[in-house]
User: Which sequence fits this backbone?
């Protein structure tokens, strides 16, 4: 309304009525995030749905500094009192995404043996958290960490990876468990 018609109509031009301002304010609205970080009953902080999320919906990218395992291990622990608490996500090329550096809310998504989310890695090595099933507003977002550790573990080391998800299907660990081999049945003649 910055033209002569606005003046004739008695409308005073201001930064609020200028077409560029109107366009900028309507275009600058970011879509509401479908998640929020809050205190979790599973462990420390968690990520919770702020609205219903449909199955297959991409929720958030797992972000952080990409580096080798050796470089990531040289950095200080995310929690010196709990060195097994990690923000490292291994990607297919053998590197890790270290969410301790430039990480986002995805680092707070907790583990569950009955997950409502899955992780997907694209061709560029970007990792996304997606809904495995329909998720209601207020539900905590969780995925199965399936952590891998090189070499045998002591009882003390294994105890550091105990699961706290509370699921009826809890397998008791954040670690990847080897798939059980099916026994071959003997054929009767």
Assistant:
């Amino acid at each position: 309304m910055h033209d002569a018609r606005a003046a004739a109509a008695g409308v005073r031009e201001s930064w609020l009525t200028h077409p560029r301002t109107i366009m900028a304010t309507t275009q600058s609205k970011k879509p509401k995030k479908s998640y929020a970080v809050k205190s979790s009953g599973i462990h420390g902080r968690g990520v919770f749905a702020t609205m219903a999320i449909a199955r297959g919906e991409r929720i958030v990218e797992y972000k952080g500094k990409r580096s080798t395992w050796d470089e990531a291990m040289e950095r200080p622990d995310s929690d010196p009192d709990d060195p097994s608490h990690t923000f490292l996500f291994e990607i297919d090329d053998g590197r890790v995404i270290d969410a301790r550096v430039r990480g986002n809310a995805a680092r707070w998504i907790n583990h569950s043996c009955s997950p409502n989310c899955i992780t997907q890695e694209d061709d560029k090595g970007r990792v996304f958290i997606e809904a495995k099933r329909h998720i209601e507003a207020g539900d905590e977002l969780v995925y199965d960490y399936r952590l891998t550790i090189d070499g045998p573990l002591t009882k003390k080391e294994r105890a550091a990876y105990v699961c706290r998800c509370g699921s009826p299907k809890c397998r008791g660990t954040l670690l990847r468990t080897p798939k059980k081999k099916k026994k071959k049945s003997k054929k009767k003649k």
